[in-house]
Write a structure and sequence with these properties.
Blueprint lengths: L8 H12 L14 H22 L9 H17 L6 H20 L8 H23 L1 H4 L17 H20 L5 H18 L2 H16 L6 H20 L1 H9 L4 H5 L4 H10 L4 H6 L7 E2 L2 E2 L3 H30 L4 H16 L11 H13 L29
Antiparallel strand pairs: 1-2
């Protein structure tokens, strides 16, 4: 396969995938948007993304990818568990959505070459989403920080929950910081992205996103410290500032982290632990344990599961859990075997963030932003395509007269 530059419409495809994974539930918006309309827009975005990706890759050239192969295998337990319609026709619809989502990633894999192209697309698209959040907060502060969510920042123009906004902000901040350390962007441009994203992250009071950002950056920058002086300086200053902040602002940080919750409520993870215990204690047949109950809305008895591993176990069974675990093993193993580089550091950040967030957020078993994060990591870990050797034309053959073609000498 010849090495070719990534066409600009690929960024449009990525933006459509981001739009598809924004979801249709969340806070009330300034202008009421019917859920059916939001679902039509998100599904239309996925269909458009697949169609455009197919138009850009009509010859169906793809890159070999263990990540995409495992996601394709994940469709098997999803379809088997959803076929009996125990979860309704919506389960089959979600299977079709996941198949279209994975198919689009396969088509885009042609341009996975280990470069920062998809990192830049990722930052641009999610920063655009954050801009809509900031615009909603300016237009209607009351709707953007309602009492229903404890005064936490939500999407007032598009229904986004605080964990979603926190996730997008943390990923944008982490990738932008790494691009600066790698010399792929200037500090001024990065500051225009990092500073407002950090403000939005703080306004969401999202602990998972904050911890994921800190842990992911620690792992990523740690992988660069042996080869990058800028990474070593940043790491040293970050540790010093964190130590000073922990001493000076200890009470304020504790108050922000607890969000006014009691110790009991905090210890059971805002009620998540009760849902997890009930899910694990629920009776299941052997088939339901192996293949799951079928793709659903990531809830159990009407309550959100908020754990990717338990959500996958509930919907795609033990096979699904094994495949998702294999995704992390494959990506993590490849990242550890790669020599230190900016691409490797960005991939480690995304893998680390998704691994930590999987404990309190669902989405690894279905089309979601987390799969997009891991897809960017897979694109960063892909080996550059070898350039096709240049064909040298044969030298023109000299025409020999007929009378000279005989070997006899007269």
């Amino acid at each position: 396969m010849e090495a070719d530059r990534t066409p600009k419409p690929v960024g449009t495809v990525w933006g459509l995938l981001v739009l598809n994974t924004l979801g249709s539930t969340g806070a009330e918006t300034v202008v009421p948007l019917p859920r059916s309309l939001i679902q039509m827009v998100t599904m239309g975005a996925l269909v458009a993304a697949f169609s455009l990706a197919l138009a850009l890759n009509l010859r169906l050239r793809v890159r070999a990818s263990a990540f995409l192969f495992l996601l394709t295998l994940l469709l098997v337990p999803s379809v088997i568990a959803s076929a009996d319609l125990q979860s309704g026709f919506g389960a089959l619809f979600r299977c079709a959505r996941l198949a279209l989502f994975v198919g689009t990633l396969w088509l885009l894999s042609r341009w996975w070459d280990g470069g920062p192209t998809f990192v830049r697309h990722h930052i641009r698209m999610y920063f655009l989403v954050l801009c809509t959040v900031a615009a909603g907060a300016l237009v209607s502060p009351g709707a953007a920080m309602p009492d229903l969510y404890g005064g936490r920042l939500v999407g007032a123009l598009w229904p986004l929950t605080p964990p979603q906004i926190g996730q997008y902000a943390a990923v944008v901040i982490g990738l932008a910081v790494l691009l600066v350390l790698g010399g792929r962007t200037d500090r001024r441009s990065a500051a225009l992205v990092i500073v407002p994203s950090l403000v939005l992250l703080m306004l969401t009071h999202t602990r998972t996103a904050t911890l994921g950002l800190l842990v992911g950056l620690t792992l990523a920058i740690g992988s660069l410290t042996l080869t990058s002086a800028a990474a070593r300086r940043f790491f040293s200053w970050a540790v010093l500032c964190a130590a000073v902040a922990a001493v000076v602002f200890a009470s304020a940080l504790q108050e922000w982290f607890l969000r006014g919750q009691s110790e009991e409520n905090f210890s059971n993870l805002t009620g998540r632990a009760k849902v997890w215990d009930a899910l694990l204690a629920a009776p299941r047949t052997i088939g339901e344990r192996v293949f799951g109950m079928g793709l659903g809305d990531k809830s159990f008895d009407g309550l959100p599961i908020d754990n990717s591993w338990l959500a996958v176990y509930h919907e795609q069974g033990l096979i699904g859990v094994g495949l998702v675990a294999a995704v992390f093993v494959a990506l993590g193993g490849v990242a550890l075997l790669r020599p230190p580089s900016l691409a490797r550091a960005c991939a480690i950040f995304l893998i680390g963030y998704c691994a930590l967030a999987s404990y309190t957020e669902a989405g690894l078993g279905d089309a979601s932003p987390y799969l997009l994060h891991l897809a960017v990591a897979a694109s960063l870990l892909a080996q550059p395509a070898a350039a096709a050797p240049l064909s040298v034309p044969d030298p023109p053959r000299r025409r020999v007269p007929r009378w000279a073609r005989t070997s006899e000498v007269t």
